[in-house]
Design a protein that fits this description.
Two copies of one chain form a homodimer. Chain A is built from nine helices and no strands. With 198 residues, chain A is mainly α. The first copy, chain A, has helices at 10-34, 37-43, 48-54, 58-74, 88-100, 103-115, 124-147, 157-177, 185-192. The N and C termini of chain A lie far apart (68 Å). At the A-B interface, helix 1, helix 6, helix 7, helix 8 and helix 9 of A face helix 1, helix 6, helix 7, helix 8 and helix 9 of B.
């Protein structure tokens, strides 16, 4: 009789979460190539074959690590357009403030995104899809702010969407390099606030 | 009699440049840990000890690679404040256009900057110093534009400096991830132009 897949039992699910939590700092600090499956397994008291029972390969573990921690970070953060009275910029400031409290996750994102500029990197497609999703969502939100008469009517929402995502990435990089000495929210506001009308 | 240091002869200098040119794609594509000194040496027809005669360690080679290619890229790009009739934003658009033609160098910068968020990384101090230098230079330039009545007087030049550097980094990352399909200059203009007065 075939054994049930590891993730279908409560114990299996708890084990997977343990592995995904140990994998985050490993990939964030050492990148995809540098991270060691054996060390991650050891961290949670598994053998390497034991870990590979839950995740079939290092590439699969990386993709699930990105997906799991993204989900965890943004749960409840996205609301349908028009259900908030806030300007979209204010919601970005709230996300940035949350990121300042979670340097491990933003380090995972920036280190792996930079590595993924290599088209052969196992997370390349994941990041291409992520930026496309962000671009579409941000464009819709900026267009809604424009429709409500809040945002400069001359700005192209699609270009602003790409720029705002870039601004977040770059400020997070400076925040990490300075070991938290420089914040993300102040320069983000300096750039975005002037685009809004009082 | 002590042998002259390798860099003091014309042949030695030419050899160093060959190594620094081979090191750029190696570090950009594989990061500090992933890059192989032996492979770089092989690329230019040197043995590993032969390469280490020119650069005493992998860390030293990385730092000289960053420094050499930065110098090469920006030579002539920086002018003293007030000697140009251009808005600083226009000079940033010109730098961004140049970066679009040199993806190897911007990939080196973004991959190594992301890795260097680790305080123990050999390029950590180099990147901290680089961002500080950029922040000071950009602040001065934006303040000059403000003084000339070109830039929104309510924007803090120091915060705008950090934001503009971040915007460039993030847009370069998107440019690389899209393999050049999305440009850097258009969203940069979308974000910066509205801060300037007509």
């Amino acid at each position: 009789m075939a054994r049930a897949p590891a993730a279908t039992t409560a114990k299996g699910r708890a084990r997977r979460v343990q592995v995904l939590n140990a994998a985050l700092p490993a990939f964030a600090e050492q990148g995809y190539r540098g991270a060691s499956i054996a060390a991650i397994a050891d961290e949670v008291g598994l053998s390497e074959p034991g870990l590979l029972h839950h995740f079939p390969s290092k590439a699969a573990l990386l993709l699930e690590t990105l997906e799991y921690h993204q989900e965890r970070t943004y749960v409840g953060a996205s609301r349908p357009v028009g259900t908030s009275t806030l300007r979209f910029a204010d919601r970005l400031y709230a996300v940035a403030a949350r990121h300042e409290r979670d340097p491990g996750f933003i380090r995972l994102l920036i280190v792996l995104a930079a590595e993924s500029t290599d088209p052969c990197h196992p997370a390349h497609e994941w990041f291409v899809a992520r930026y496309e999703r962000v671009r579409v969502a941000f464009t819709r939100q900026f267009a809604a702010d424009q429709g409500a008469g809040l945002l400069d009517p001359e700005v192209d929402p699609a270009q602003l969407a790409r720029a705002a995502a870039a601004l977040m990435d770059g400020l997070q990089l400076q925040f990490l390099l300075s070991e938290g000495a420089t914040d993300i929210v102040t320069p983000l506001r300096a750039m975005l606030d002037p685009l809004y009308r009082d």
